[in-house]
Amino acid sequence: MTPRIFALSAAVAIAAVLLVAACSAGTKAAPPSAPPTAGSTISISDMKFTSPAAVTPGAKITVTNSDGVEHTVTADAGNAFNVEVDEKGTATFTAPNQPGTYAYHCNYHPTMHGQLVVQ
Ligand SMILES: [Cu+2]
Q1: From which residue to which does the signal peptide run (predicted)?
Q2: Quick one: which of 10, 21, 70, 104 has the most CB atoms within 10 Å?
């Protein structure tokens, strides 16, 4: 092996080591996958609520209103939650900390009802 070829081989070997090091460092730096947050949105469309299957206690709930009129998401009992949602707007509220099934309605439209399951 001539010195020149040896130097080239050494350079390639060093480059390969650096490449592997960079790759493994990148893998370690990757954040752990976040838990699924799907289902924290109540959507309103055509005068109907669509609730998530269930939410965790104290979860931040986003309400999206696709209708051209204002709605509210108001708990039937107590003051668990009550939020106004502008036409074509969004609003947020905090789910109750106490697990349970919370029936809710819209203050403006008595036919609109939904349920929020906290567990
Ligand atoms: Cu309404």
Answers
A1: 1-29
A2: 104
The CA 87 to ligand 1 mean position distance, Å, reads 10
Instruction: Say how many C-beta atoms besides its own lie within 10 A of residue 74's C-beta.
Output: 17
Tens place of pLDDT for every residue, the chain, 119 residues?
A: 455 545 544 444 444 444 444 444 444 554 444 444 444 999 999 999 999 999 999 999 999 999 999 999 999 999 999 999 999 999 999 999 999 999 999 999 999 999 999 99
Between CA 87 and CA 115 the distance in angstroms is 21
Ligand 1: distance of its center to the CA of 62 in Å?
16
Number of H helices, E strands in the chain: 1, 8
Rounded Cα distance, 59 and 113, in Å = 20
Distance 39 CA to ligand 1 centre (A): 21
